[in-house]
């Protein structure tokens, strides 16, 4: 028996370039950047003071009145996921009566949800070691007697990774499969692939899948400065993220969420749903050699889809503007020399656990709209990489596309999809 077919019927981006698919798509086609100086907090003391920040976001706009009291106090990462899921379901026209709650599931990618300094700062300050008591640090006695009482009671529930998927499932009465994947930059694409498998195996009819992350706060930026290479172009933030660029100097941090509605094809047809694309094949891989795992993932995805690389209209890349982009360029040359490449991070930065699905949405469009947006900063592409990064908007000439994702820890994923024209 062949696997059940899986299609995409709803898109829900919450991103630095737009909230909702129409705004998101418009920004891409008009080549508008979502990277700018950070404005939601004072970043003047940081060596990196810009990122893909979402300024105009209010969670109350995405909640029914009965849910506002609980969700208003949740962490921003959770709120972004809740908003993205609502946008995706509304875009799909998927009413409560359109799906059996026990056949509706949620799989999201996310990480350890960063905390607000105001949550732990007062407790840490009150628990400092007394002057003259040795090296500066936290006095555990004071922490137990004073500090703990200053921590908000709901603090822990705001910061465990499965909270976004839990809240989305509760709000949408999704009683089917539920999971959270913590796999950094590949997390949301891996979540989408897992959700696809649930439908193919007849464990669900509809899945809400994607990811969420917030990397433009103080905690995340300081962590990234310690462990990652970040662009230092504070004077030109809009053009700082240069995937495959000759003078690329590091990634740009961003925030956002992307959730899509995946649906069994006949289920979607019976209710007259609009179909954006069909999932044709997926592959996973792992290694520490940067290319071997992703190469295996791509090979498996193409084989499952039953196509060859020359049938791809373009590859939606994961390059982030770091020196490691050269490894990805080599792999893309092997796949199809002169094949078209779309590099979405240039417009919004690296959205972390949310990134790969939000980036994938840059390749999707309404049925009949064959426009593929340009990649911002493509003019700076390193000629030595011999890679065809799209410099101008053009029309699709093939029916299939490929989205790839990988992490610096070795996880890799590839997804082949077909547009519904």
Properties at a glance:
421 residues, alpha/beta, Peroxisomal Thiolase, Chain A, domain 1, 2 domains, 12-stranded mixed beta sheet, two-stranded antiparallel sheet, 20% strand, globular
Describe this structure in words.
There is one protein chain. It contains 13 helices and 16 strands. The chain is 29% helix and 20% strand. The chain has 421 residues and is of the alpha/beta class. The relative contact order is 0.18. The model has no long low-confidence stretch (mean pLDDT 94). The protein has two domains: 370 residues, Thiolase/Chalcone synthase (Peroxisomal Thiolase, Chain A, domain 1), CATH 3.40.47; 34 residues, no CATH class. The strands form three sheets. Strands 1, 2, 5, 6, 7, 8, 9, 10, 11, 13, 15 and 16 form a twelve-stranded mixed β-sheet that branches. It has a two-stranded antiparallel ribbon with strand order 3-4. The radius of gyration is 21 Å and the shape is globular. β10, α11 and β11 form a beta-alpha-beta unit.
Class of secondary structure makeup? alpha/beta
H-E order = EEHEEHHEHHHEHEHEHEHEHEHHEEEEE
CATH hierarchy: architecture of the largest domain: 3-Layer(aba) Sandwich
- Please identify the top-level CATH class of the largest domain: Alpha Beta
Number of strands: 16
What is the end-to-end distance?
Answer: 27 Å
What is the CATH superfamily classification of the largest domain? Thiolase/Chalcone synthase
Output the number of helix runs.
13
Global mean pLDDT = 94
Portion of residues in beta strands equals: 15-25%
- Report Rg: 21 Å
Q: How many structural domains?
A: 2
Write the CATH fold name of the largest domain: Peroxisomal Thiolase, Chain A, domain 1
Poorly predicted parts: none
| Assembly type | single chain
């Amino acid at each position: 028996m062949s696997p059940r077919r899986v299609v995409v019927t709803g898109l829900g981006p919450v991103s630095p370039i737009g909230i909702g698919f129409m705004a998101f798509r418009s920004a891409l086609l008009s080549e508008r950047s979502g990277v700018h100086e950070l404005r939601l907090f004072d970043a003047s003391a940081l060596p990196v003071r810009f990122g893909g920040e979402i300024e105009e976001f209010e969670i109350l706009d995405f909640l029914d009145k009965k849910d506002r009291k609980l969700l208003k106090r949740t962490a921003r990462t959770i709120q972004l996921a809740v908003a993205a899921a609502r946008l995706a379901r509304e875009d799909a026209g998927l009413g409560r009566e359109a799906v059996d709650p026990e056949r509706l599931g949620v799989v999201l990618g996310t990480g350890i949800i960063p905390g607000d300094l105001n949550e732990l700062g007062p407790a840490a300050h009150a628990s400092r070691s007394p002057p003259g008591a040795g090296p500066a640090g936290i006095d555990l006695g004071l922490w137990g007697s004073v500090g703990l009482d200053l921590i908000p009671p709901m603090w822990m529930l705001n910061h465990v990774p499965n909270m976004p998927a839990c809240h989305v499932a509760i709000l949408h009465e999704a009683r089917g499969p539920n999971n959270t994947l913590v796999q950094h930059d590949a997390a949301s694409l891996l979540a989408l692939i897992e959700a696809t498998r649930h439908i193919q195996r007849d464990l669900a009819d509809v899945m809400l899948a994607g990811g969420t992350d917030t990397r433009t706060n103080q905690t995340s930026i300081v962590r990234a400065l310690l462990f990652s290479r970040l662009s230092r172009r504070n004077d030109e933030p809009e053009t700082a993220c240069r995937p495959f660029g000759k003078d690329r100097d590091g990634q740009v941090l961003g925030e956002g969420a992307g959730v899509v509605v995946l649906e069994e094809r006949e289920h979607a047809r019976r209710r007259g749903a609009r179909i954006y694309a069909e999932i044709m094949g997926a592959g996973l891989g792992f290694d520490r050699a940067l290319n071997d795992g992703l190469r295996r993932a791509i090979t498996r995805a193409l084989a499952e889809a039953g196509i060859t690389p020359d049938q791809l209209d373009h590859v939606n890349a994961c390059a982030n503007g770091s020196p490691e982009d050269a490894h990805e360029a080599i792999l893309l040359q092997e796949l199809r020399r002169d094949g078209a490449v779309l590099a979405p991070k240039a417009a919004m930065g690296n959205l972390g656990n949310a990134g790969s699905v939000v980036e994938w949405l840059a390749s999707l469009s309404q049925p009949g709209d064959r426009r593929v947006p340009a990649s911002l900063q493509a003019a700076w592409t390193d000629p030595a990489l011999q890679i065809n990064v799209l410099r101008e908007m053009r029309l699709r000439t093939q029916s299939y596309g490929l989205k790839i994702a990988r992490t610096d820890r070795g996880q890799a994923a590839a997804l082949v999809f077909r547009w519904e024209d």
